[in-house]
C-alpha cells in the first residue's frame, strides 16, 4: 500500500513539475508566474507537493523564488554552461572514458560541421573568420596546450551557433566541458608537434566551412578526429578506451 501511495505522490509531483516547467518556459525570463497560493490552485496540488516541485525547478534554474514583499515565483532560463556541466558531471559519475565520449562526439561534431557549412548566419560567420585570424597568428608559435584548448572551445561554440541546433550547441559545449575536466591538456603538454598539427587541421576545417565546401569540411574534420584518436591511444592506451573504473582494476 505504501509503495502505491509513494508512486501516486511521485506521479502527482512529476505532472505538476511538467506543467509548471511549461508555464515558466512559455514566457519571457523574469516574468511573474504567480504567488504560491495562485500556483497551488492552478496546478491542483497541496502545499508540500508544490514546494517540492518549486525546489526541483529552482534547482533546474527554470524558476526563481523570491520571498517577502513583491515576492513570488518568476521564470528563469538555465544557462548553456550550467546544463553542460551537469551532463559532464553525470558522465564522470558513470566513469565514462575519454574514448567513449570521443565516439559520441564525432557524430555530433560532424553534423555540426555540415550544418555550419550550409549556414548563412552572418554574425557567426564573422566570428569564425576572426577565430581563423587567431589560429593563423598562432601557427608556428610556441603555443601552450591551454591556449590550444581555449581556441578549440571558441571554435566549438561558434560551430554550435552556426548549426542553428540548440541540441548540437549543448552537446559540443558538454563535450568540451568533459574534456576540460579530464585534463586533456596531457594529450598536448610536451608535444609542440601535436599542437601545430591540431592548429593546422583546425585552420583547414575553418577554411572549408567559410568556403562552404562540404566535402573538404568532412575531410578536414576526419583528419582532426584521426589525430585525436592516435594521441589518446598513445597517451592513455587501454585506459582511454575502457571506463575509468574498469581500467583501474
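-> sequence recovered:
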Amino acid at each position: 500500500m505504501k509503495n502505491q501511495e509513494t508512486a501516486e505522490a511521485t506521479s502527482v509531483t512529476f505532472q505538476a513539475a511538467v506543467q509548471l516547467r511549461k508555464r515558466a518556459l512559455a514566457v519571457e525570463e523574469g516574468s511573474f508566474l504567480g504567488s504560491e497560493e495562485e500556483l497551488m490552485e492552478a496546478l491542483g496540488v497541496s502545499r508540500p507537493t508544490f514546494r517540492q516541485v518549486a525546489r526541483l525547478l529552482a534547482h533546474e534554474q527554470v524558476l526563481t523564488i523570491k520571498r517577502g514583499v513583491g515576492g513570488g515565483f518568476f521564470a528563469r532560463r538555465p544557462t548553456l554552461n550550467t546544463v553542460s556541466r551537469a551532463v559532464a558531471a553525470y558522465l564522470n559519475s558513470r566513469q565514462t572514458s575519454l574514448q567513449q565520449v570521443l565516439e559520441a562526439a564525432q557524430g555530433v561534431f560532424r553534423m555540426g560541421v555540415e550544418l555550419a557549412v550550409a549556414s548563412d548566419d552572418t554574425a557567426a560567420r564573422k566570428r569564425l573568420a576572426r577565430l581563423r585570424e587567431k589560429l593563423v597568428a598562432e601557427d608556428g608559435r610556441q603555443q601552450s596546450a591551454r591556449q590550444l584548448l581555449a581556441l578549440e572551445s571558441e571554435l566549438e561554440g561558434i560551430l554550435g551557433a552556426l548549426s542553428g541546433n540548440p541540441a548540437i550547441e549543448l552537446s559540443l559545449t558538454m563535450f568540451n566541458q568533459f574534456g576540460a575536466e579530464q585534463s586533456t591538456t596531457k594529450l598536448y603538454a610536451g608535444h609542440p608537434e601535436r599542437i601545430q598539427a591540431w592548429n593546422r587541421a583546425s585552420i583547414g576545417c575553418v577554411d572549408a566551412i567559410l568556403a562552404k565546401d562540404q566535402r573538404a569540411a568532412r575531410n578536414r574534420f576526419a583528419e582532426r578526429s584521426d589525430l585525436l584518436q592516435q594521441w589518446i591511444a598513445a597517451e592513455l592506451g587501454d585506459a582511454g578506451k575502457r571506463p575509468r573504473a574498469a581500467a583501474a582494476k
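The two ends are 43 Å apart (CA to CA).
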